[in-house]
Amino acid sequence: MSASEHPGAGHRQRLRDKFLAHGLAKFTDEEALELLLTLATPRQDCKQQARTLLGELGGLQAVLDAPAERLAQVKGVGPKNVLGLKLVPAVARRYLEDKLLRGEAFLAAEQAAEYLRMGMQSLEREVFRVMLLDGRRRLIAIEDVFSGTIDRAVVYPREVAALALARGATALACAHNHPSGDATPSTDDRAITRRLYYACQGVGLELVDHIIVAGRQLHSFAQSGFLAGVAAEYQALDLEG
């Protein structure tokens, strides 16, 4: 071992080689976190920091989702480590958003699921997000239009429809988060979805889906059949009129 190397240099290089050969598929959470920490800690073994982070926070996802202030409280984790740990999920969200914006077509519940989870599952306040689509259901833009208290978001369907029209969209999908971790739709969630559908229909827009994000859980109003029921209800009223 040369004077410039530290005792863990060989292990660190093996982790790097393993990643370049196989990606993260053959890594444990501890190994993945250890490799990430080495990027900001060039001359120190990072195994113990990785083990402590996982032990205190409960898993790799929990570590990456943790606030910077909480990460800084973990023994052995310095400011550069915190920066790296917060940068990774931020870059991943940007990557997924850019990938959605370049997509051929948009199937809200499937293609947006991981983006929505990564972007909304850790929010402490409710946020209402709108994904604007063109005539071929390709994503035009993603907009956060409302944010609320810990348990409620105020949503104005006409403003959502006006935003979509102003951006040249012909369809849209909406999402909001439940900080409680329970994706079960509330009475208000159902009422908002119905009002959104009616507002969109009134100006010639299609509401593709409304998705609730709660931690790793998702609830899709399209997949549950609720939107189809609202569409039938709207059509019946239209025929009566």
TrEMBL record:
InterPro entries in UniProt: MPN, RadC_JAB, RuvA_2-like, UPF0758, UPF0758_CS, UPF0758_N
SUPFAM superfamilies in the record: JAB1/MPN domain, RuvA domain 2-like
Domain of life of the native organism: Bacteria
Gene Ontology biological process terms from the UniProt entry: proteolysis
A GO MF label: metallopeptidase activity
Residues of the MPN domain: 105-227
Key words, A-Z: Hydrolase, Metal-binding, Metalloprotease, Protease, Zinc
A Pfam family reported for this protein in Swiss-Prot or TrEMBL: RadC
PROSITE patterns per UniProt: MPN (PS50249), UPF0758 (PS01302)
NCBIfam families, per the entry: PRK00024.1, radc
PANTHER family assigned: DNA REPAIR PROTEIN RADC (PTHR30471), UPF0758 PROTEIN YEES-RELATED (PTHR30471:SF3)
Similarity section: Belongs to the UPF0758 family.
Protein name: DNA repair protein RadC
Source organism of the structure: Desulfarculus baarsii (strain ATCC 33931 / DSM 2075 / LMG 7858 / VKM B-1802 / 2st14)
Taxonomic lineage from the root: Bacteria, Pseudomonadati, Thermodesulfobacteriota, Desulfarculia, Desulfarculales
